[in-house]
Fold this protein.
Amino acid sequence: MKNGIFFLLIVNVLVSCKPEPLDINIKQAPEKLSFSNQYLGDGLFGVVMSKSFSGLKQPFRAGDSTQMIDSSLLISGASIRLIGSNVALTLEPLSTGIYGVNQLNLIDGEKYRMEANHPVLGSIWAEAVKMEKVRFDSINFEVTEDDKNIDLHFSFTENQSTKNYYVVNYLLVKKDEPIPNKPDPEYISRRIFEQQARFDLFSDADAVNGKIEVKRKLLNQGISDSLWLSLSHISEEYYHFLEAQRRGGTLFNQLRGEVINYPSNIHNGYGFFSLHEPDIILTRRIKVR
């Protein structure tokens, strides 16, 4: 696996004019570990380990329309273990804050425990059940002639015997960006992690006759004629975490460690440990109207 393939830290932040600073005294929450992960199947599992920061600090580089979190928030020197009925392993450090393995096979319905230790920021742990993979039934993708919008229609089958939750991620690919003819899991995982803000959440309540069918209009503005789609079957707890993340401003507020209380399953830390396996599709322009 190449270093940095599981890079999470690109966040869209609205930049506004700042008033004159005021001297204030606000008690800040202590720095804690923040955890995020992705399991892709095919043996690939990656983790981004970072730390929370004070709400009075600005951890973003100035001058970019898309802001990049300062790499000083990424945590090196952590030991991360994954433990389950069929596995007990330590993740390999790939680069600062990035850890992973490329030969991991998880079992649907099995519970796994994540344990992470850092010599300064302490220890965190969490447990998660490996969710069964769900696949798209159909996808139609149309770009309007003026390139201003993308009309998307997709469907998937819902398991009516249980209560279920799902997330669909959308990632536009810039027109001048090269796309491999056969994208490998490394490329896909990097792209999925680059965008967390554009997603939709669904549950069994959205199903009609066992199907969830969605029509979605995406603002394009000539940016793209290709689109990554990923569908994941997720736990109810992770569903509520994503709900809060969407309301609160995604990763920026998640790492601030104050004000917003996310329904995290990380003990003594921030973020969420989830073992969902996405169905990932690259859709190219099929029709211009």
Summary: The longest strand covers residues 224-234.
